[in-house]
Design goal:
The complex is a heterodimer of chains A (751) and B (156).
Chain A lengths: L1 E2 L3 H12 L5 E3 L16 E2 L10 H9 L3 H8 L3 E3 L2 E5 L4 H15 L5 E4 H7 L9 E5 L3 E3 L1 H14 L3 E3 L4 E5 L5 E5 L4 E4 L2 E3 L5 H7 L7 E11 L8 E4 L9 E4 L5 E4 L3 E2 L10 H12 L12 E10 L5 E4 L6 E5 L5 H20 L13 E3 L7 E3 L4 E2 H7 L9 H8 L12 H12 L42 E7 L3 H12 L4 E4 L7 H5 L6 H13 L5 E4 L3 E8 L2 E8 L2 E12 L3 E3 L2 H4 L9 E3 H9 L7 E5 L3 H13 L2 E6 L5 E3 L6 E4 L2 E4 L2 E4 L3 E3 L3 H4 L18 E3 L2 E3 L13 H19 L1
Chain B lengths: L1 E10 L3 H9 L1 H7 L3 E6 L4 E9 L3 E15 L3 E10 L4 E14 L2 E14 L6 H28 L4
Antiparallel strand pairs in B: 1-7, 2-3, 3-4, 4-5, 5-6, 6-7
Classes of the chains: A alpha/beta (751), B alpha+beta (156).
């Protein structure tokens, strides 16, 4: 039995299975890698700066030659990008030469010294006055979720098994066997047990009467930025008296990781993050790369590293019994050393009982994506299609939670933090697992996402079970309008009346965007425009292509190519001009950085209306932040569905409480009990399409860069919320009409 | 985006031998990494299916390849456009290639401009760079094998 399916436990299970044994991996969480293995810098560290002679340094050195085979055999996302330890002061170069180079050499890690000019050439993003740097070419990055899962799946493939939600509460080593008691009353009998329980390793040891060590948590807070500022290597400062300091790490699937802080605490369950810490991290990281000061993090998270009472890894049999082995105190280098720790522990387990291996290694085939179509787009921020979500739902380690799905395909990771895609993602997961949507949780019992609405309630805006696929009258037009919200409708009507061929491409199967989706109380001109679009649009030469998400714009010699993605695949459309009317999304709480943990139930009004349209209740007792007609409509919709909206305020929340689901929210000094916090305070523009063209960086909140006429580039225009966000869309209709007029004038001038 | 600039590889074959491979779809199909189908689609234009392995995932893409700005045997431009299967979006790449003879070998230098949309655009530049370099390494290996095969002549 291996207790704990973090990266170390999973690697050990794989190693044991490959040697012909039948390990059972027990994990108290509802996915593998739910502890420190999911919240770290995702670096495969060479150990160039490890303390020579420590167990850690020895195992990091042993792990280095094992990595190429791990990456190849397990098909793990891994990039050797190298690290730069940057010196800011004139004396730093000498320090790197006299201290770091000999240390790296004694650890057997190749390094190079770069002078200031080399740094400027190799890392133009680094601070301009860098005096030099230590280049460590073999430092690498990995997807930590994928690695942990791949270990576990390789264990399963070689004869092992994994049990999730299995918390060990008793351990008996008497009478020639190990008997592990689980929280659910089950017992597991085994020959030997390996304790890989991370932060809880001391508790597992003490279940067997072994009090030989203690483990305490050291919290590290990180920030995630979608924009990477061109940073293509790991950047780290020269270590000071306070430790290694904060790093900049490119994320393997794009974006940048900033941090971590280091804060010793007592509570092993406290993963809270703090708004004040953001400034600390941004300031420290901007010292390495000045542009990072302009970062707009999309989320913060905290990881708890294990600090053992011995100051080093604890890899040994227990003094209580040679059937109990510890792999504990693995500090912050668990990922990096995992292949070597696994071999070391497996050797130890074999020796303890005189076992002889019967090797049966299995390769994991890389995931094949050969579906004819990507399917309809589920995640708008990252253009993740239904085919990818479906492939992610079929992994050997079963996925039962939204967080598990996130770590398998990337949904909910982007700018909107799941507020635009969680409803569809949860529905897809429920469908794949054959459970009701309301049974899918964020990360296990208590972290519920959706409930059932009040009896007899029906959504005001019904969701169509099978979106209507309207074939476009033609794939070519004079003007393509992307988005059929108020701005898109305004643009289309104006252009249609001028006699131009207009095609509107819309993600939903209806027009009206958020105005209709939220059930806003519309003004007369808005109602009339929507009515005219529905009834007279076709007659005015306006085509409508619904249920199609535009995922790309490509310039062409005679205008633009627009790539649309629908259920049946990609469609290519052409036009002389494009008007982007892609709207916006409510700023998620993750961007604000509230103090506290991250329970389920902190959502935006976008998610509320999507959930209600799908017949799901997003919360039972809610606090609503915002005012104006969008917030009013959200209040009405929640109350009608049976949610108790206990307070509606324009104040910004400061702090939240709740381990699994939200329990209360603090505004100033006052706490309000609620299981749901709904934000409807501010809209961020959603011009994601412009990122692919390079005309916009990946920081959230950047509107389409338009001139006074609404022009972005030749033949490319933007109108409404994606250019000038307004939470109540008051100006959208008129703005769409205005920009369409300009674009038509421009077409005439060109003709 | 400019993904790669001033990349260089040495191919153990003459520029003329390399050039000849580019004109013929069946040779080109054996040379292009992960190519499972390729057919001529007009002069200097091909259509087919390529696969790229990103270590952890294999992506198949329907592509068209166009050769332009040809100055035999010194330089050409390869334009690739494609759509990955199973993923939303598309890519378009322009790869100017220059060839310099060197004692029976050829030093090939190239740049890669890449336009991405949809899912591929969300992968970071470091990952895409690694994939592109891997594809070129395989291309060079295939080129050398193919040229050696031609030199040996057709099987009896």
């Amino acid at each position: 039995v291996v207790v704990g399916a973090g990266v170390v436990g999973s690697a050990i299970a794989m190693e044991l299975a490959r040697r012909g044994y039948e390990p059972l991996l027990l994990e108290q969480g509802f996915d593998v890698g739910e502890g420190a293995s999911k919240s770290n810098s995702a670096i495969v560290h060479t150990g160039f700066d490890a303390r020579p002679g420590s167990i850690e340094a020895t195992l990091l050195a042993r792990a280095r030659p094992l990595w190429p085979a791990i990456v190849e055999e397990l098909g793990v996302p891994f990039l050797r990008i190298g690290a730069l330890m940057l010196g800011a002061h004139p004396g730093d170069l000498a320090r790197l030469r006299s201290e770091m180079v000999p240390l790296a050499r004694s650890n057997g890690v190749p390094v190079e010294i770069l002078d200031g000019a080399d740094v400027a050439r190799l890392a133009p993003w680094a601070m301009p006055d860098a005096s030099g740097a230590l280049l460590v070419p073999d430092e690498s990055i990995v997807d930590p979720f994928w690695l942990t899962r791949a270990y576990a799946e390789a264990a399963i493939g070689s004869g092992g098994s994994v049990r999730l939600g299995a918390e060990v509460v008793g351990l008996s080593l008497a009478r020639g066997a190990v008997v592990a008691q689980l929280r659910d009353g089950a017992t597991v009998v085994a020959d030997q047990v390996v304790n890989c329980a991370g932060l809880m390793a001391d508790a597992i040891a003490s279940l067997a009467g072994d009090g030989s060590f203690t483990i305490s948590p050291r919290k590290g807070e990180f920030l995630v930025s979608e924009e990477a500022f061109g940073i293509d290597r790991i950047a780290l400062p020269i270590p000071g008296p306070m430790g290694k300091g904060m790093l900049l790490t490119p994320i393997i699937f794009g974006g940048l990781l900033l941090g971590p802080t280091a804060h010793d605490q007592l509570d092993k369950r406290d993963h809270s993050t703090h708004r004040d810490t953001r400034e600390v991290i941004l300031h420290a990281c901007a010292g390495l790369a000045p542009s990072v000061a302009e970062a707009r993090p999309i989320r913060a998270f905290a990881g708890l590293r294990t600090v053992s009472s011995t100051g080093d890894y604890i890899l040994r049999a227990s003094a209580v019994s040679d059937r109990l082995h510890h792999a504990a105190g693995i500090r912050s280098t668990g990922i990096s050393a995992s292949p070597a720790i696994a071999q070391f522990v497996a050797d130890q387990v074999e020796r303890a009982r005189g076992w002889r291996p019967a090797p049966r290694p299995r390769r994991l085939e890389p995931r094949q994506l050969d579906a004819a179509s990507g399917g309809a787009v589920v995640c708008l921020c990252r253009s993740i299609g239904a085919a990818e979500v479906a492939a992610a739902s079929r992994t050997a380690v079963p996925v039962t939670t939204l967080d598990g799905l996130k770590r398998r395909c990337g949904v909910t990771f982007g700018d909107c933090q799941g507020n635009l895609c969680a409803v569809a993602a949860v529905a897809a997961l429920a469908n794949a697992s054959g459970v009701p949507v309301t049974a899918v949780t964020r990360r296990g019992p208590g972290s519920w996402l959706f409930g059932a609405p009040a009896d007899g309630w029906r959504p005001a805006v019904a969701r169509h079970e099978r979106p209507r696929a309207v074939p476009p009258p033609s794939t070519e037009a004079d003007l393509i309008v992307v988005g059929a919200g108020l701005a898109g409708v305004g643009a289309a009507l104006t252009a249609g009346h001028s006699g131009r061929r207009v095609l509107v491409v819309e993600r939903l199967d209806r027009a009206g965007g958020a105005a209709v989706g939220y059930g806003l109380r519309l003004g007369r001109s808005e109602r009339d425009a929507l009515q005219a679009f529905e009834t007279a649009g076709a007659a005015a030469g306006i085509g409508f292509l619904g249920s199609t998400t535009v995922t790309g714009l490509l310039p062409s010699p005679d205008g633009w190519v627009v790539l649309g993605q629908g259920e049946s695949g990609t469609i290519e459309l052409r036009a002389s001009s494009i008007v982007l009317a892609t709207g916006g999304y409510v700023e998620p709480a993750e961007h604000l950085g509230l103090d506290g943990p991250r329970p389920a139930g902190i959502v935006t009004a976008d998610l509320v209306h999507q959930a209600l349209a799908a017949g799901l209740l997003p919360g039972r007792q809610a606090v609503l932040v915002g005012d104006g007609r969008s917030a009013d409509a959200t209040w009405r919709a929640l109350v009608a569905a049976g949610c108790d909206v206990v307070s509606m305020t324009t104040r910004t929340p400061d702090e939240v409480r709740g381990d699994t689901r939200l329990e209360s929210v603090r505004f100033g000094d006052a706490w309000t009990d609620a299981d749901t916090l709904v934000l409807c305070h501010r809209l961020l523009p959603q011009p994601f399409l412009l990122r692919g063209l390079g005309s916009l960086d990946a920081r959230p909140g950047c509107p389409a860069p338009v001139d006074q006429d609404g022009r972005v580039a030749d033949g490319l225009w933007a109108a409404g919320t994606c250019a000038a966000p307004d939470v109540d869309h008051r100006t959208s209709l008129a703005d769409g009409s205005r920009v369409a007029s300009r674009s038509i004038e421009s077409l005439r001038a060109g003709a | 985006m400019r993904l790669l600039t001033g990349e260089r590889v040495v191919v153990h074959a003459t520029p003329d031998a390399i050039w000849d491979l580019f004109g013929d779809p069946s040779s080109l199909a054996r040379v292009l990494p992960g190519c499972s189908a390729l057919e001529a689609d007009g002069p200097d234009r091909f259509r087919g299916v390529l696969a790229a392995r990103l270590a952890f995932i294999t992506i198949h893409a329907d592509i068209t390849a166009t050769l332009s700005d040809q100055v035999r045997p010194r330089s050409l431009r390869l334009e690739l456009a494609g759509r990955p299967r199973g993923l939303a979006g598309a890519f378009r790449s322009s790869i100017p290639v220059r060839m310099e003879p060197h004692d029976g070998s050829t030093e090939v230098s190239y740049d890669v401009d890449l336009e991405l949309s949809g899912r591929l655009a969300t992968f970071g530049a470091p990952l895409l760079r690694e994939v592109m370099r891997g594809q070129v390494t395989e291309l060079v290996r295939n080129l050398e094998r193919e040229v050696a095969r031609d030199r040996a002549g057709p099987p009896p």
